[in-house]
Amino acid sequence: EVTAADYLVLPGVGAFAAAMDELDSRDLSAPIRQRINAGLPTLCICLGMQLLLGKSDESSGARGLGVASGTVTRFTGDIRIPQLGWNRIAPSEGCQFLRDGYFYYANSYRLADPPVGWHVAMSEHGGRFVAAMERGAVLACQFHPELSGEAGLALMKRWLGES
Length: 163
Prior knowledge:
Layout: E1 8-10, H1 16-25, H2 29-37, E2 42-45, H3 47-50, E3 55-56, E4 71-74, E5 83-91, E6 101-107, E7 109-111, E8 119-124, E9 128-135, E10 138-141, H4 149-160
Parallel strand pairs: 1-2, 2-10, 3-4
Antiparallel strand pairs: 4-7, 5-6, 5-8, 8-9, 9-10
């Protein structure tokens, strides 16, 4: 069902290791990897985006899906952690879904550097970090588009091919 679905959403609220354990226990990791590597329409939200990476400092020793390069690290410095609220994203050239605007975040962890082979939008909170990334029909957002008002709705419509 995962590989045959027209669209798939990988949501995310929770902890990295627990989420990967759940995906593994349901035999979902391999079909999700296959789907993403094939570039099929997949929307990954918050922790869902982080699971695309190989590992996270949140859960030492836990392995992610590994379909994007990089490690998820905790925000540091004299900033509010978790980041809660609205923040601007700035997409790079080549993004087909992502547009400049403000989106809603609820996160303590982030990907600092753009992964190889992905178009990204960056944001600032205690330094630059990857706000979202896309490759083909795969869209992964550290922010929550479903909580981001008109900007989030417009983004999801572009991903669904409705605009």
